[in-house]
Amino acid sequence: MLLGGNKTTRKIDNFAINNLKIPSIVLMENAAISFVKHIDENEDNFLIICGKGNNGGDGYAIARQLFSKGKNVKIFCISNENMSNDCMINYEICKNMGIEIFYKIEELDKLFFECNVVIEGIFGTGLNSEIKGIYQEIIQKINTASNNKKVYSIDIPSGINGDTGEIMGISVKADITISFVTYKKGFLNSKIKDFLGKIIIENIGLNETSINHLLKEYYLTPDMIKSFRIKRNEDSHKGDFGKVLIFAGSSGFYGAGNIVAKSCVRTGAGLTTVITDKNNFSLNVFVPEAMSFPINFDNINENLEKLENEILNSDVIAIGPGIGKSEQAFLIFEKLISIKKNNKGNTIKLILDADALNLLSENRKLFEKIRNRSILTPHLVEFSRLTGFSTDEINKNRFEITKNFAKKYEIILLLKGKNTIITNGEELFANSTGNSHMANGGMGDCLTGIICSLVGQKYDLMKSAGIGAYLHGKIADELVKKQYIVNASHIIENISECILNIFQN
Ligand SMILES: NC(=O)C1=CN([C@@H]2O[C@H](COP(=O)(O)OP(=O)(O)OC[C@H]3O[C@@H](n4cnc5c(N)ncnc54)[C@H](OP(=O)(O)O)[C@@H]3O)[C@@H](O)[C@H]2O)[C@@H](O)CC1
Ligand SMILES: Nc1ncnc2c1ncn2[C@@H]1O[C@H](COP(=O)(O)OP(=O)(O)O)[C@@H](O)[C@H]1O
Ligand SMILES: [K+]
C-alpha cells in the first residue's frame, strides 16, 4: 500500500488530472462513492460537517450519495466563501437537491442531538496552520458529541497533520477514518492513535500501478509481502538456500548467538554456521541443526586464517548481537567485513546489528567496507550513535534522517521500533506489524536471524528486511491474542507456520 503525505496527495491529484485526464470532480465523486460503501446500511440520520476546501467538497458529495439512497441527511456548512471549485459544485448540487443546509453555530447542538452519525470533512491534506476560532469551536463540539455518536472522518481527522501526525491545536477524535489512495505518514505517529479510530484506505479510481512511479514509499501489507515470495524449485537443495555465517554471542551472552542461529535455521536457511567461543557448548543443544566455528578468544590470530576460508564459503554474514566491544570482537568483525566476494564470485551480504553497529560508530572508516551489500538494523539509541542525532530529533524526522543515512552510506537501513522503517535511501517501507508486548531482550537478535536467513535464500536486501520485520511483528501480533508477553523463543517456534500463512493465503 502506498504511503503518502500532504505533498504526495497533491502530486497524485495533479498526475491524475493532468496526465491521466481524469477530471478532479470525478476523483471527488469516486472518493465519495468509496467512502459511502463503509457506512452501515442500518444508519439513517446523518450530519455532515463541511469546510470550504476539497475535504469539504468530499463531504458535500458524500451527503448527496447518502441522500440519494433515501437517508436523512443534514449538512452544516462552515463557510460558503472562497470555496474550492469542486467544493462549490457539490455544495450547489446539494442545495438544488433540497438537502437541508445549516450555517449558524448556534444550531449545531440541536443538529448533533438529532443525528446518529457525524461525518466530518473540515480539513484533510490541506490543513496548513493551527486551528483557531470557529473551527476550534466546531471540533470541540464534535468531540463532545462523539461520546454517543459515531464519528467518521473524511481522509484525515480534521486537525491532524497528514505528514507528521502532529495535532494542529485541536483535532477531531474519529471512530473511523476513511482515507484516500495512500496510508498517510501522519497515521504512524503513535501519539494520535486514539484520534484515528479504525483506519480504512480507499481507492478513488486510480490503479496503483498507474501512479506508483510517483512515490516509492509503502506501508507493508500482507499482499505486498506475499508478492515478494520466491518459489522453491522442486529439485532445489540446501546449497540453494544460502550458507549463512553468524558472529553473535560471547561469554555471558551466548543466548544472543543461539537466538540468532535458531531464528535463522527456522526461517529456512540452507546451512547455518556460528562463530563462537570454543568453550560454548550450548549452541549444539539449543540449535542442533547449526554448525559451529570455534574461536579461541585468548589467541585470536590463530583463528583468523581458518576464518578466511569460512568467509569465502559463505553467502551472507550476520554480525553483532552479544559480541561485546572487546578488541577480539573488533578484530573478528574487521576480518569478517574485509572480504567482499566469496568463492563463487558473489558479493557476500552483511547484516549488522547491536555491537557491530556500536563498533562501526566508533570506527567510521569501516563504512567503506560495507557499502552496497549491507543491512544495518539499529534501534533508536544505536541509530542515534551512528548518526549523531538525538533520539528526539530522529523521532521527529524519521523518514528524512533514515533516507539520508541510507543514501550517504549506500546501505539498507532498518530502524527498529513501532512501525519499523526500512529504506535504501530511495524506496521506503514502513512496517505495519508488531506491538509493545514483544519489547523484551532477545527480540532484535531474533529479527537479525530471520533477515540473514532470507538474504541467504536469495531475497534482495530490501525485501529481506521488509519480509523479516513484517513476519517478526506479525507472529507477535497473533500471539498476543492468546498470551500477554511474547519472547524471542515464542517467535522462533512460530516462524515457519507464519511464513506458510503469509505466502500461501
Ligand atoms: N487525490 C486525492 O487524494 C483527492 C483528495 N480529495 C480530498 O481533497 C482534500 C484536500 O483538499 P484541499 O487541498 O482543498 O484541502 P482541505 O483539506 O480541504 O483544506 C483546505 C482548506 O482549509 C483551509 N485551511 C487550512 N488550514 C486552515 C486552518 N488552520 N484554519 C482555517 N482554515 C484552514 C484552507 O484555506 P486557505 O488557507 O487556503 O485560505 C482551504 O480552504 C483531501 O484531504 C481529500 O479529502 C478528494 O476530493 C479526492 C481526490
Ligand atoms: N512497541 C513496539 N511495537 C512494535 N515493535 C516493537 C515494539 N517494541 C519492540 N518492538 C520490536 O522488537 C524488536 C526489539 O529489538 P531490540 O531493541 O534490538 O531488542 P534486543 O536488543 O533486546 O534484541 C525490534 O524488532 C522492534 O521493532
Ligand atoms: K477531515
From TrEMBL:
The keyword NADP is annotated on this UniProt entry: yes
Binding site for (6S)-NADPHX: 54-58, 124-130, 135, 155, 256, 322, 379, 445
Domain YjeF C-terminal: 221-502
InterPro entries in the cross-refs: CARKD, Nnr, Ribokinase-like, YjeF_N_dom, YjeF_N_dom_sf
Cofactor(s) this protein cannot do without: K(+); Mg(2+)
Cofactor note: Binds 1 potassium ion per subunit.
Subunit structure: Homotetramer.
Record's function text: Catalyzes the dehydration of the S-form of NAD(P)HX at the expense of ADP, which is converted to AMP. Together with NAD(P)HX epimerase, which catalyzes the epimerization of the S- and R-forms, the enzyme allows the repair of both epimers of NAD(P)HX, a damaged form of NAD(P)H that is a result of enzymatic or heat-dependent hydration. Catalyzes the epimerization of the S- and R-forms of NAD(P)HX, a damaged form of NAD(P)H that is a result of enzymatic or heat-dependent hydration. This is a prerequisite for the S-specific NAD(P)H-hydrate dehydratase to allow the repair of both epimers of NAD(P)HX.
Name of the protein in its database record: Bifunctional NAD(P)H-hydrate repair enzyme
Classification lineage: Bacteria, Fusobacteriati, Fusobacteriota, Fusobacteriia, Fusobacteriales
Encoding gene (name): nnrD
